[in-house]
Structures are given as structure tokens and as C-alpha cells.
Specification:
Blueprint lengths: L5 E13 L2 E7 L3 H4 L5 E4 L12 E4 L2 E3 L5 E6 L4 H7 L6 E8 L11 E7 L6 H10 L3 E8 L8 H7 L2 E6 L6 E2 L6 H8 L3 E6 L1 H13 L4 E5 L14 E5 L5 E5 H4 L2 E3 L29
Parallel strand pairs: 8-9, 8-12, 9-10, 10-11, 12-13
Antiparallel strand pairs: 1-2, 1-7, 2-6, 3-4, 3-7, 5-6, 13-16, 14-15
The chain binds flavin-adenine dinucleotide.
Length: 289
């Protein structure tokens, strides 16, 4: 069980830009102390008079006990909401809801773990690595992105992990290609027992397939576009096979964002499979709905 999330006025402490990314530290007491790796926060954007009603979601890269509890998020400017966040100044107030979602499950024994992340989603792996280390696990990072600017935290991963390998699609940093291409060799050489992954759906699907081929679990954090972040709107529903063997449409924001990869019906994401519980079924001629 995780603690219930809180909604607090966060105070912007620092906002730094490094390459494509903005790193924001917020004083958010209550959020920081409840946080567990893999969870995220939803920030209100645009100010009180804004027409941007939907919160924007971000993984948490670090929490510290300073000032009663700080959280650090990393984002790139994608549209209006992130543009507004990037223009804020120290001491500005941001409404923060969190920590949201279910965290990564942690191994009981001191095992070897691959932590694979693509672009900004890699942020979720850093607090995970810290907790794994406390449990005497060996975190081995695989980080990827479109180009060198897009790879998040390669230097930090050298401190936080036992090993780091990087791949970029344009070959500007590390190996050329997809980061998941490096996964089979690392699983073999490190003798990995579990893979944790964050990134685009295609990457998570491939990671799940590769891990399954080695008979090890993949715990994946899915970044499905979501509107409310708190389970009310159903915008982020994903077809996932439950313990009962049936497919359920589950809300990524509350039942996720972390799922066991093999439970996600990757080929059916974005649809309601006909055999999902509660799926609308085709009516026979003359049948009433
Ligand atoms: C669980 C989770 C964790 C995330 N963590 C990070 C992070 O650590 N760093 C980071 O840079 N980004 C992260 N994102 C993506 C981030 O939420 C979007 O980049 C942001 O909402 C875009 O807002 P915008 O107004 O700038 O862009 P716009 O494209 O103008 O946004 C319009 C709407 O689309 C939604 N939206 C657009 N793209 C995405 C997307 N990829 N995922 C979800 N919603 C989207 C927004 O919520 C918003 O409601 C995360 C998303 C989720 C769901």
C-alpha cells in the first residue's frame, strides 16, 4: 500500500536548464516524504485564470528532506504547459498533487537489476537506483535517446549505478541504435534478475519481450497521456491482464504507471479489446442494447 497523495502549494526553489532539459526543484512537504520510486506528480499550469485545466504529469528524479521536503523533476518544453513551467522564477508557487500512482515493486533479495530509460522518462530510475543500492542490489543503467541532448542523466548514472551504457539513435553518444538493442548482452553479462524500464510504449514492449525471453520479469513505467492523474476521467485506460487471467481496462494513473510488462496487451493499447471485461459488444440483429 502507498500513502494517499496530497495537494500542496509547492514553492519553486531552483530552475536550471541543461541542454534540452529543465530541472526544477520544488519545496513540496508531504509529497517528498510519501514518495516512492516510480511515482509521479501532477502540476497545475498556467496560473489561476488559465484555460489550461489539465494538470501536467512528471516523474520525480529526486527527493530530499531539505526545507521540509523537496522534489526534483526534469522536463523538456513540449507545449504550452511545459513552456509556462520553464518561464517560472524562484519563489513562484505551483499547485502540486502527488505522489501519484503505484511505485516499482522492489526485490526482496540483493539481486542484479537493469534500469533502462529513454529520454526524460529515465528520471524515474534515479530514485529507484538509490533504493536498490540501500538493499544491496546492483543497478546497471542503460540510457537512450534520439541524440546526445536527449539522454538524461548519463553522468549521474555513473555515480548511482554499477555500470552505465548509452545508445542514441543518431549515434552522437554511445552506441548507435535503440537502447533496448543493448539489453540482451547486459542481461547475459551482468546476470540480471529483473529489468525496470521507462520510456515510449514501443521500447517497453520490446523490453518486455526480451526479458521474457530470458525468463526474468520486466517492471515498466508507462507514460500514457493522462488528463486528471487521479483516476477520475478514465483517459489513460490500458488493457492489462489481471490475476484472474481476464483483460481489464485499468487506469494508468492509479493502477499504474508501473506494470509487470507481460501483463500489458501491447498490441491492443489505444483500443478496448473485444474480450476485455465490460467491453462493448456487437449487437445481433434485433437485439436491444
Ligand atoms: C506518468 C507521466 C510521467 C511523465 N514524466 C515526465 C517527465 O519526467 N518529464 C517530461 O518532460 N515529461 C513527462 N511526462 C510528459 C508530460 O506530462 C508532457 O510532456 C506534458 O504534459 C506536456 O504538456 P504541454 O502543455 O507542454 O504540452 P501539450 O502537448 O500542449 O499538452 C497538451 C495536453 O496533452 C497532454 N500530453 C501531451 N503529451 C503528453 C505525454 N507524452 N504524456 C502525457 N500527456 C501528454 C498534456 O497532459 C496536456 O493535457 C510524463 C507524462 C506522464 C503521463
Amino acid at each position: 500500500m502507498t500513502d494517499s497523495p496530497v495537494q500542496v502549494p509547492g514553492t519553486l526553489l531552483t530552475l536550471r536548464r541543461a541542454g534540452a532539459y529543465h530541472t526544477m526543484t520544488l519545496v513540496a512537504p508531504g509529497v517528498a516524504e510519501r514518495f516512492r520510486p516510480g511515482q509521479f506528480v501532477a502540476l497545475a499550469v498556467g496560473g489561476e485564470q488559465s484555460s489550461m485545466l489539465l494538470r501536467r504529469c512528471f516523474f520525480v528524479r529526486e527527493v530530499k528532506p531539505d526545507y521540509g521536503g523537496t522534489i526534483e523533476i526534469v522536463f523538456s518544453v513540449r507545449g504550452k504547459g511545459t513552456g509556462w513551467l520553464a518561464a517560472l522564477r524562484p519563489r513562484d508557487i505551483i499547485d502540486v498533487a502527488g505522489p501519484l500512482g503505484r511505485p516499482f515493486p522492489l526485490p526482496r533479495d540483493p539481486v542484479t537489476c537493469v534500469l533502462l530509460g529513454v529520454a526524460h522518462a529515465s528520471a524515474a530510475l534515479f530514485p529507484l537506483a538509490a533504493v536498490l543500492r540501500q538493499r544491496d542490489c546492483r543497478p546497471c543503467f542503460l540510457l537512450g535517446g534520439a541524440g546526445s541532448d536527449d539522454v538524461l542523466g548519463a553522468r549521474g548514472a555513473r555515480r548511482a549505478g554499477d555500470s552505465v551504457a548509452v545508445a542514441t539513435r543518431d549515434g552522437s553518444l554511445g552506441s548507435a541504435g535503440q537502447v533496448e538493442d543493448l539489453l540482451p548482452e547486459l542481461i547475459e553479462t551482468a546476470g540480471a534478475d529483473v529489468v525496470y524500464a521507462c520510456g515510449p510504449l514501443d521500447t517497453l514492449r520490446t523490453v518486455t519481450r526480451i526479458a521474457a525471453g530470458y525468463g526474468i520479469p520486466a517492471q515498466v513505467a508507462v507514460e500514457e497521456p493522462m488528463a486528471c492523474g487521479t483516476g477520475v476521467c478514465m483517459a489513460c485506460a490500458l488493457p492489462v491482464v489481471g490475476d484472474d487471467g481476464a483483460t481489464h481496462m485499468v487506469r494508468t494513473c492509479v493502477e499504474g504507471p508501473v506494470f509487470r510488462g507481460e501483463r500489458v496487451r501491447w498490441d491492443d493499447v489505444g483500443t478496448i479489446p473485444f474480450d476485455a471485461l465490460g467491453a462493448p459488444r456487437a449487437l445481433r440483429l434485433g437485439e436491444r442494447p
